[in-house]
Specification:
- This protein is 80% helix and 0% strand.
- The chain is globular and about 65 Å long.
- About 3% of the residues have low confidence.
Length: 274
C-alpha cells in the first residue's frame, strides 16, 4: 500500500471517505446496494485496487452492525443454498484480479450490475402482471404476503437462478466489493420482504466478506497501513447504521424495492464511467 496515498489526503478527500463510510453503515441497515456509491468514492480518492482493500474492513464493520440489528430475520435455507456458488465466484474473482487492470474491473462489474437491474425490473413487472391477473380472476386481495421469507425453490430454473446469482455475487464482491447489488437483486426476485431481506443479507455479507480477507491479504490489498486508515474511518459507520435503522421503518416495501434497484443502477453507471 502506498503511504503517500493514505496519509497525504486533503481535508476534502478524507471527508469524502468519511461520508462513504457513513453510507456503508446506512446501506447495511436500510438500502442494501447503496454502498456502490461508497465504492465509487473510495476508488475516486484512492488507487482503485488499493481502495478495495481499505473498504473491505469497513464493510465488515457494517455487516456486524447489521447482524446485531436484524439477526432474528435471516433465512438460513437461502444462505446455505447460495454459499457454494458464491465460493466459486470468489475463486474466479481472485484469478481475475491477478491479471485485470482497473478499467477492466470497472467495466465488467458495471455491465453486470446494469444487466441484473434490467432483468430484475422485467421479472418484477411480470410478477405484478401475474398477480393482478389473479386478482381479476379470483377477486383476492392484491397485496403480497407480509411474510419476510421467500417462496421455496421447487424448479430447475429456480436452482439455476440461485447458482447464477451466487457466482456473480461472489465474483463481484471479490473483484470490487460490489456484490451487494447483485445479491440484493436476487433477494428481491426471490420474494423477500424488508426485514427478511436485511437479515439474510446481513449474515450473508458478514460471512462472505470475512472469508475474503485472506484472499485480499494475499493479493496485497490489505496491510498494516490500510488498516490504520480503516481505524480512522470505521467510526463513521456507526452513525450511518443508526440512521439506516431509523429510516427503514419509515420506508414502505414498494419504495424499498425501488431504492434498492435505483442504487444498483447508479452504482453500475458509476463503475462504467469511472
Amino acid at each position: 500500500m502506498d503511504m503517500m496515498t493514505l496519509w497525504h489526503l486533503t481535508g476534502w478527500e478524507f471527508a469524502a471517505l468519511a461520508f462513504a463510510a457513513l453510507l456503508v453503515g446506512f446501506s447495511k441497515t436500510a438500502v442494501s446496494g447503496a454502498n456502490t456509491v461508497s465504492l465509487a468514492l473510495f476508488a475516486a480518492v484512492l488507487p482503485a485496487r488499493a481502495s478495495t482493500g481499505v473498504l473491505l474492513p469497513i464493510l465488515i464493520a457494517g455487516d456486524v452492525l447489521a447482524v446485531l440489528t436484524y439477526r432474528r430475520h435471516a433465512h438460513w435455507p437461502t444462505l446455505w443454498r447460495l454459499f457454494p456458488a458464491v465460493a466459486a465466484g470468489v475463486v474466479v474473482g481472485t484469478f481475475f484480479l491477478m491479471w485485470a487492470d482497473d478499467e477492466a474491473v470497472g467495466t465488467s462489474i458495471g455491465a453486470i450490475l446494469l444487466l441484473m437491474a434490467a432483468v430484475t425490473v422485467w421479472r418484477r413487472r411480470a410478477a405484478d402482471r401475474a398477480a393482478q391477473a389473479a386478482v381479476d380472476a379470483e377477486g383476492a386481495p392484491g397485496e403480497r404476503s407480509g411474510r419476510s421469507g421467500p417462496e421455496e425453490i421447487t424448479s430447475r430454473a429456480d436452482r439455476i437462478k440461485a447458482r447464477s446469482y451466487g457466482v456473480l455475487g461472489g465474483f463481484t464482491t471479490m473483484v470490487a466489493n460490489a456484490g451487494g447489488p447483485v445479491m440484493s437483486l436476487y433477494l428481491l426476485s426471490a420474494g423477500f420482504r424488508k426485514l427478511g431481506f436485511l437479515g439474510t443479507s446481513a449474515f450473508f455479507f458478514l460471512i462472505v466478506n470475512t472469508s475474503k480477507v485472506p484472499f485480499s491479504v494475499g493479493l496485497g490489498l490489505i496491510d498494516a497501513e490500510s488498516l490504520l486508515l480503516d481505524a480512522a474511518l470505521v467510526l463513521f459507520v456507526v452513525p450511518g447504521a443508526l440512521l439506516g435503522k431509523w429510516a427503514v421503518s419509515r420506508i414502505n416495501q414498494r419504495l424499498f424495492e425501488r431504492l434498492v434497484i435505483a442504487a444498483t443502477v447508479v452504482g453500475g453507471v458509476q463503475l462504467l464511467v469511472r
